[in-house]
Amino acid sequence: MTGFTPPRIRNLGLADYRRTWLAMQDFTEQRDSTTEDELWVMEHPSVFTQGLNGKPEHLLAPGDIPVVPVDRGGQVTYHGPGQLVVYVLLDLRRRGLGIRRLVSILEHGVVSLAADYGIQAYPRPDAPGVYVDDAKLASVGLRVRRGCSYHGLSLNVDMDLAPFSRINPCGYQGLRVTQLRDLGVGDELQVISQRLLSELTALLADNGATLAGTAAAPATSVP
Known about the structure:
By secondary structure, the chain is of the alpha+beta class. It has one domain (8-205): BirA Bifunctional Protein, domain 2 (2-Layer Sandwich). The protein contains four helices and ten strands. It has a seven-stranded mixed β-sheet with strand order 1-2-6-10-9-8-7, with helices on both faces. It has a three-stranded mixed β-sheet with strand order 4-3-5, with no helix packed on it. The longest helix has 18 residues, at 99-116.
């Protein structure tokens, strides 16, 4: 099936993490078969979020940055100003879309965006997200409830990366992180947001059908 209605885009600016998370849960609980899909776009004040599989030992020294245990998959990550966050509130059952394909759509949206800037980025089969030279550029974490998704992806654009040193990002000791600014991208976050949303909505229009057979990371990039 192709030609799905584009999700409604909500630009929410700088938004408190916990309130946003509760709002996603409420939206998902209250939606029905006629509710439009939505993409929520925002930045967050500094916060560590610990996924359902999170282990305390990966929180090395959170200090004064709050830690919020949440109901997405994965381990601990960091959100802060200058990071672009896109939450995907989709009726997967209505779309006939599997969770693995949705992860691929989110990853390849970032890969395509990076390619437009001349950056070779790639997903890894062993660790969801998008990488450049083995440094993590974007993270993906999702929750499915009642056949519908929430949470989504975070893309490092132009932020203070130092808080990542206080954790083992996504549960990987010594994992390096990077951002578009350090890779030579000078566009503002709002411009990058528009370009990423264009990539994601194009992929979602046919449930990522064009991704079949797409290669993951180069062999030299996977430990």
